[in-house]
Amino acid sequence: MGLITQPEGAGMTTFDPQTQEGWVTTRLDFLVNWGRANSLWPMPFGTACCAIEFMASAASKFDLARFGMERMGFSPRQADVLICAGRVPFKLAPVLRRIWQQMPQPKWAISMGACASTGGMFDTYAVVQGIDTIIPIDVYVPGCPPRPEALIHGIMMLQKKIMHEQMSSKTLRNEMQPDPRSQLYIPADRIDELSEPFGNSVHQTRSAP
Amino acid sequence: MTAPFTIYQPEGEQPATPKQVPHRGGAANPSAAAIAAKFPGAVVRSHVMWGETTCVVERAKLHDIVQWLRDDAAQCYEYLSDVTAVEYRDLAQPIEVVWHLRSIKHRRFIRLKVELAKTAALEVPSIVDLYTGADWLERECFDMFGIKFAGHPDLRRILLWEQFQEGHPLRKDFPLRGRLSRSQQLTNALSANPEARYSMEELSIADAFEELPLDMRARLKGDSRTGE
User: Among A180, B96, B99, B140, which residue has the fewest nearby CB atoms (within 10 Å)?
Assistant: First the structure.
């Protein structure tokens, strides 16, 4: 999943194409991945204007059903891909974390829009600076908000990613366990470094005037 | 066909949209003079701007004034539309707590203000006992400005989360990004239990209480009822 850094070659078992076993495994991989990639059930987590574009993507003109996504699972237990559309305030962070933990494997996550991916223009005390500090993300869709085409492009990227999964990988379905004390997936200093201000907001200071 | 409701029309008055309202001055709301007559010394000053009358009153008299404005037949301010506060950038200028009252019967609007020096305790009397709707407005004002409303039955944060430890964001000395580091803010926020946030009333499960699992019953019974 998104934030796991695998050692070189891990999960990439090399098969001798001549042996029967490798051929069966890769064909089975293909079949399973093909099934999964084309029947992704999204769990929409829409918090802001990106959700409007997401609804447009699901509606008849852009029609997510073409990708096997016609079933919106408003229950995390019956969903495959979490689409977080919109900014996430800190108040919502434990809720998003809980929803992600309630989704069964195999599962993927798409961060839709600038705010979900980085905090966007909301570089304030109330907004999470990138939801990848809460849950692992597979695909980031840029845009403010992204047009439906951009979201569909992100979904197709996710499908491509799923097509390259290998069942023989030992770490593919590992749930990331947060640090029990801080409840963070990634080290605290890394989060502070990643959420440093950029753009116009460098003129703000953290200290009180 | 008859109208489904009747519009109250005082004798000899016609509803009209005010036109050419002056920026400063103009006709004051008669309630302002009535307050000054009824509570001598309670009105610090009053002025009219854009046709709206503002009375700056003494903190100790505020509750009595609001009660009188609500109950007196000649005033009849039956609707409290807002409770909020203003802080000015000038450090010497006091924080103002603002109440917006509207009389639907007399088509009047009055704004009451209480000035609080920043050096003293920020505390004003609560008017929840007069207007039930003041409950959440006062909680919001407390949440964002840190003003204590003496007599409020349940004064706690309403917009921000309970784990928020950085103060009151609408104060001028509050830095936009907050006082803690991002990782610390995230750690604080993630320490919340999302399922403890619901009270029994919100879930409407008071009737089914006996059938709930033991752990949920214990959680609802204890002080962690709202998780705060």
Answer: A180
Structure tokens at A142: 């840029």
Instruction: List the one residue out of A3, A44, A9, A46 whose CA is nearest residue A138.
Output: A3
Q: Of A92-106, A108-122, B8-22, which gets the smallest average pLDDT? A: B8-22
* DSSP string across B166-212: S--TTSTTS-TT-SS-HHHHHHHHHTS-GGGG--HHHHT-STTGGGS
Predicted model pTM: 0.78
Q: Does domain A36-168+179-195 have CATH number 2.30.30.240?
A: no
Q: Is there a contact between A206 and B177 if contact means CB atoms under 8 Å apart?
A: yes
ipTM for the assembly: 0.77
Residues from chain B that touch A129, judged by Cβ atoms under 8 A, are 182
Secondary structure string (H, E, C) spanning A127-157? ECCCHHHCCCCCEEECCCCCCHHHHHHHHHH
For B53-68, how does the pLDDT look when each residue is reduced to its tens digit (9 = 90+)? 999 999 999 999 999 9
* Alpha helix (H) residue ranges in chain B: 30-38, 62-71, 134-145, 182-190, 200-203, 214-221
A97, A182, A195 ranked by CB distance to B182: nearest: A195
Neighbouring-strand partners of residue B85: B97
How far does the CA of residue A196 sit from the closest CA of chain B (Å)?
9
In 3D space, the residue among B62, B211, B32 whose CA is nearest the CA of residue B130 turns out to be B62
Give me the residue spans of the domains in chain B: 21-159
Tell me whether residue B113 is exposed, middle or buried, using C-beta atoms within 10 angstroms of its C-beta: 0 to 12, 13 to 18, 19 or more.
buried
CB A110 within 8 A of CB A158: yes
CATH class of residue range B21-159: alpha beta
Residue A4's identity, in one-letter code, is I
Cβ–Cβ below 8 Å for A126 and B194: no
A166 touches chain B (CB under 8 A): no
